[in-house]
Amino acid sequence: MAYLVLARKYRSTTFDEVVGQEAISQTLVAAIESGRIAHAYLFTGTRGVGKTTMARILAKALNCMSAPGPTAKPCGKCEACLAIARGDDLDVVEIDGASNRGIDEIRELRANAIFRPARCRYKIYYIDEVHMLTMPAFNALLKTLEEPPEHVKFIFSTTEAEKLPATILSRCQRYDFRNIPTPQIAAHLKALCKAEKVPAADDALFRVARAAAGSMRDGLSLLDQLLAAGQEITDEAVIRLLGTPPEERMTTMADAIASGNAAGALGELNALLESGISLSGAVGALGELFRNLMLASACGPASELIELPDTQRQAVAALAGRFSLPALVHAVGLLQSLERNVRSSSVARALAEASVVRLAAADKFIDPQSLIARLEAMGRSPASATAPRAAMPAEGEKKKPLTP
To answer: Which range (70-79, 260-269, 292-301, 307-316) has the least confidence?
Structure first.
């Protein structure tokens, strides 16, 4: 039997199972239960956040054969539910907008839409990446989209909603899918590892979830790679897969920077590069660390904005206390600019080393904020208040001409 990837094997089958999109699920459930079902839906959001999954669940909810009408809890066992889950139902037509983007395909859709569904309640057209359609295709779709036959429903999904014509947007109910928070991705990955009976370290799964950057599918793909490489998910295995340095090494480098030890910080950077970590990966990890330090300093170490497991928050809190908040803000800006320049520079390592020295020897450089503070302090000093001023001529007295 062919191996089924985790993203397909554990695809959500009900509204309650969709991770991270509770508001959209609740709205769709309420609409179905009240009978206020729109004729066209638009799902927008980045890749891997559940748009296609939600579209299939909505299609099952509208066409489940075990219920007398649309239901918010499709059975998942009838012929229609099973076929929709597989993506091959006769009455739920899934169209790839990237490869079927011309006016001829939309004309064929319009011609077929007038016929009633073969066995289900509705004929549903799901167009993925709908923004790829040509403008003539959009124009051909407008009339059918505005006043479709009563047995037709449209579901569109896109990662670039800004490319859709306003005439299309105005005819759809729009739902914006948010990026899934890292802790929710980590919790879901942990549940899947338990179901697969694979031991997994919490810190390793959190690292995978953070690398997924809000995309559940990206997180599942990374987990698939780890499962293919071994029978246990460890932090070391994740570091090897992602090519990112461990937090302990980055903390040591930041500690050297806080101590003003430029040589020590450069030595840590060199050790990272010799261990196989790319320069861009090291710079990105250092930038992420200083971002967490800034957030810990501004919001406290318990802030939800800091995407770290609890075991690492204490180290971040202790290290943040060694920097001033303006210094951390300056470091984040410097490292973000460095990360952009590293990708295109022929002297990327020299730039990185210069930035590390700049951070470690920050007290030897005068930044604009400290200069302004010094000038303000001079303006408030007693000496400036009692400094002699040029005498003004008395009333009626003429100004003396300036002598060469």
So the answer is: 307-316
